Amino acid sequence: MAKAIKTPLYEKHVSLGAKMVEFAGFVMPVQYTGIIDEHLTVRENAGIFDLSHMGEFYVSGKGAPAALNNVVTNDVEKLKIGKALYTPICTPKGGIVDDILAYRDADEQYMLVVNATNIEKDFEWVAGHLPRGLTVDDRSLETALVAVQGPQSELIVSEALSEDLDEVRYYEFISAVVDSVPVRVSRTGYTGEDGFEVYVDAARAAEVWDVLYDLTTGIGGVPVGLGARDTLRLEMKYCLYGNDIDEGTTPLEAGIAWTVKLDKGDFIGKGPLQKQKKEGLKRKLAGFVMVDSGIPRHGFEIINVDEKGIGRVTSGSYSPSLRENIGLAYLDLPHGEVGTEILVNIRKKPRLARVVETPFLKLLGGK
Amino acid sequence: MYPEELRYTETHEWVRVGDDVAVVGLTDHAQSELGDIVYLELPPAGTEVSAGGEFGVVESVKAASDLYAPLSGKVVGVNDAATGDPALVNRDCYGEGWLVKVELKDPSELENLKTAAEYEEFIGA
User: Fold this and answer.
1) Grouped pLDDT means (10 residues each) for chain A, 367 residues
2) Which end of chain B is more exposed for a tag (fewer CB within 10 A), N or C?
3) Which residues in chain A have Cβ-Cβ distances shorter than 8 Å to B57?
4) What is the CATH number of domain A5-52+141-235?
């Protein structure tokens, strides 16, 4: 395997004493002060994240909206300029190639934000499924991404930009500057809290990080690593590619049917997804809370009360906000229905859990 | 970080030996590597454990790790305060965050354990 890539903010993390790990070919901070502290600080105040491992592609050219709409399941043709959209990309069988954000920059230009694990695969997939004449430009390594998340994030980011962000609603974005550095700022995130994601040229990322870091920590916020990013998203039942979704699962099974627009015209995977919807799901991604002690982890087997296998844990953790052990699993129906008692095999001992409504954490609505 | 009077295992447990009873805990290195500890599974009093055998589990937010008995004997005490509040192990791993007390079967097994200096060398501290 190739040597892990350092993000433009690597030195910052090391000097802050972060514990660094390799993730998707990048050296990333997994924690600074501790996962629980970082998690709770994001929920109560604010946290700053380096997400420069994420990939960014630019798709442009005549006919880009219709052509891209054929590659994704959500509707990017209807998407307004200045807005972003969450969408899966599916295989012809309806399995998930990746889940991405599409930003509409202009009539015939989009920026796609893809998972770090899938940068190469997605580039080949997207480029290979768009007609000639359209350009797909991979700018992943030249683009850094800093997120500020939490109830105090608007205060921090508006101060950094010297701009009022009240008009920037959820999933909208603007171009702005931090000091003299041009940035793209969207009201998006992966924590469930109000928050912003700031895209900047890798060469100038450190300047933007410094400004946002000082403002964040100045009001008691903290830098946040991948560890707390994972617990924050899990409490919201946001899917993690490679754990909860992959080419063997469909958006309907994953519970993100709202991202599949079956009425928008043809797109890759439409047939099988339409069929699955019509015939009904055989399994679905369900959230559960442990009743017995023990923490469910990725891959653990789930059985029903008659000890028959009914699924596997896709994500599981201690939830710092709920102080309970929670998990996600594809469960054969009807076991995936809320209230069902299931058993998770933790170290060869079946332990009781209960299917619950998701998201696990109920938050007040944002902007 | 690694008190002189304790003995250590390569699996990151420590032992404090008194009169026939040894207190067992997790080293500072282990608690730091694991991060926030949120779950402990310890054997009930009366359980027989054998040197090198699994006797429990410690889990942090990110990872689960087995606990191995440094010495053979019978569990005669379990730290209920730590199972109730596993973060005690992060806060005070050699004190309030101890795990179990074991009545020793064969004190000569102590010779197989590492001194503080040997353990520090082992972890590359």
Assistant:
1) 88 97 97 97 98 98 98 98 98 98 98 98 98 96 98 98 96 97 98 98 98 98 98 98 98 98 97 98 97 96 90 97 97 91 94 96 64
2) C
3) 347
4) 3.30.1360.120
A36 touches chain B (CB under 8 A): yes
At A81 the three-state DSSP class reads: coil
- For domain A55-138, which CATH number applies: 2.30.30.40, 3.40.50.300, 3.40.50.2300, 3.30.70.1400? 3.30.70.1400
Half-sphere exposure of A257 (CA within 13 A, CB side): 14
Contacts of B88 in chain A (CB under 8 A): none
Chain A, 51 to 110: residues with Cβ < 8 Å from chain B are none
Q: Which helix (H) or strand (E) holds A277?
A: helix A270-279
- B38 at the A interface (CB within 8 A)? yes
Domain(s) of CATH 2.40.30.110: residues in chain A:
282-367
Q: Say if residue B108 is exposed, middle or buried (CB neighbours under 10 Å; 0-12, 13-18, 19+).
A: exposed
The answer, for B53 touching chain A at a CB cutoff of 8 Å, is no
B61: distance to nearest CA of chain A, Å?
A: 6
CB < 8 Å to A33, chain B: none
Which segments of chain A are extended strands (E)?
5-6, 19-23, 26-31, 47-50, 55-60, 84-90, 96-106, 109-114, 135-138, 143-149, 173-178, 181-186, 195-201, 222-223, 283-290, 301-303, 309-319, 324-332, 341-346, 349-356
- How much is the ipTM here? 0.89
Extract the runs of DSSP E, i.e. beta strands, from chain B: 7-8, 13-17, 21-26, 37-41, 48-49, 54-60, 64-68, 73-78, 100-104
Residues of chain A with CATH 3.30.70.1400: 55-138
* Per-domain residue ranges of chain B: 7-105
Q: Tell me the pTM.
A: 0.95
B7-105 to CATH, choices 3.90.650.10, 2.40.50.100, 3.90.1570.10, 3.40.50.2000? 2.40.50.100
What's A282-367's CATH class? Answer: mainly beta
- In chain B, whose CA is at the least distance from the CA of A320? B61
Query: Is there a contact between B57 and A347 if contact means CB atoms under 8 Å apart?
Result: yes
- How many CB pairs below 8 A link A and B? 35
Q: Which residues pair with A301 in a beta bridge?
A: A312
Residue A364 distance to chain B (closest CA, Å): 25
Burial category of A17 from C-beta neighbours within 10 Å (exposed 0-12, middle 13-18, buried 19 and up):
exposed
Inter-chain touch B62–A30, beta carbons under 8 Å: yes
